[in-house]
Amino acid sequence: MELKDKVILITGSSSGIGKAVALALSHKHNRIVITARRKELLADVADNIQKNGSEALSIAGDALDEEQAAGVVQQAVDRFGRIDIALLNIGAGPSLNTANAMPLDIKQNMRINYDSMINFFCPLVRQMRTQADGGIIANTNSLAGFQGMPTQGQYSAAKAACRIFLDTARIELKPYNIRVLTLCPGFVVTERNKQRGIPRSLTMTMDEAAGHILKGLKNEIREYLFPPLLRNITMVGKALPQSVREKILTKLATSD
Ligand SMILES: NC(=O)c1ccc[n+]([C@@H]2O[C@H](COP(=O)([O-])OP(=O)(O)OC[C@H]3O[C@@H](n4cnc5c(N)ncnc54)[C@H](OP(=O)(O)O)[C@@H]3O)[C@@H](O)[C@H]2O)c1
After folding, report:
1. For the whole prediction, is pTM greater than 0.90?
2. All domains of the chain, ordered by start, with CATH?
3. Exposed end of the chain (fewer CB within 10 Å): N or C?
């Protein structure tokens, strides 16, 4: 889908990748709906969207609240009449070791990554089913969702859950012309996630990540893993026997 003159909802757009995607799309005369909890940061993003020639609607809210998420979709439709593209981008992956994790911390991560996506997904499907040309629902997933990573088990599990859920949705929503995309970045250096000793060759800037996400949306790539080097490492890793994979991950986890 051409990414201009469209109504685009981006969740988790007060900072990081979501903000970078919103700003990248703002140069193409779109109507952009941004949402997250931090109102002041959203207002700043909205100002910049407008300066760049697009319209902005900023709605502060907590995506863990089902009604608030449905309200965001409704307000977007009330203002712009439809939603062409939704990027469900909210997520976080704080480090957690299973040796001493508490149930609440593990389940909270599932809520942030999975529940936040579902709370928007259902009202979006209801809306897009009324649109003759359907629409695009995309999730900012992660390469971490393809492999249980040390200190990131709960995050890998949550992202894998999103991906598998969307695999089913992609098939079921085809008759309604709703295209479902899973966009999987590797390491991205954001305000919250400063480089953690990861070599530059294995990281992306937020603008680079946003560029890949725009490519995934424009070309409607069902499952897009990026950047290419980390994609290849992920794919090779998946193909290795479990015992070999475990040895490599153990070594990585214990090396400084
Ligand atoms: N950074 C990476 O290396 C990387 C790699 C692969 C995938 N990803 C994925 O990319 C996505 C964006 O992450 P990021 O790195 O850009 O992190 P970030 O800067 O922390 O962005 C997360 C966004 O989600 C919003 N958010 C969090 N909890 C929320 C809630 N309960 N309700 C509403 N909004 C909420 C935050 O805004 P408020 O705090 O204002 O609510 C913020 O706008 C996530 O899904 C992440 O898993 C990141």
Report:
1. yes
2. 7-254 (3.40.50.720)
3. C
